[in-house]
Amino acid sequence: MHKRTFAACLAVFLFISTASAQKAEVTIVLNEAFFDALLESVFQNFEPPEFSMSQNDLRRDVVLSPTTGIQPMGASSSFASNGFGSITSGQTSICSESVKILKEFNGVRTAVRFRSGKIFVPLAFSGKYAPPFFGCVDFAGVAETNIELAFEPNTQRLVGRAKVLNVNLNGTGGVGGTIIAKLIQTSIDKKLNPIEILNMEKLSIGIPVQNSGNLRMRAVNVRPEIGIGQLNVRVDYQFVKE
Fold first, then answer.
1. How far apart are CA 88 and CA 45, in angstroms?
2. Which of 2, 119, 133, 173 has the greatest number of C-beta atoms within 10 Å?
3. From CA 141, how far away is CA 178, in angstroms rounded?
4. Residue 196: is its pLDDT beyond 50?
């Protein structure tokens, strides 16, 4: 009897509350320590993320040079190594042409950092690339990456799009970084972007209303706010009847 009375009172309370104010705000806080722990767990429990470098028109126009980093097609290629690292002549057919994300390279860790209202992600990496006529080139370095956030109402997702700002290659003084940056950006666009940060439907709570159906939380607006060392995601939820 008491349980039925309590349920009836709760149903009335929910009806009055949703009728007077059908929107609510929820704030989700994701700090740098959270992402540090997440990335540490990824590198401890799985193989480093690796994805193929995309074939694109850039490779038909230029190849890497040991002096300037760019050399027109058809120029002499009779050398065994350049500033990028080792080159194996005639190995193009078996070159993996891939980029592997590393936990750390030359003291720089792959991480997520919130600075000056932006999300910066230094990505340590190594990889292989096969310029025309040059064989397989080993390279490694750090990609300075920025992530821009956007809310997709139709899919109820907060997504990020990674953009490579600069690439620092080991031992080259920056030579050839532009070409590698374009190849990495193309690969990220095809393999990773957009990156799902939060799925609002998975965070939604269903509330049964006795003899009346269910209420479901639906995100109508998402406002990411980048603070010092953390990301505050403010979500405006609307209660809708299912």
1. 33
2. 119
3. 13
4. yes
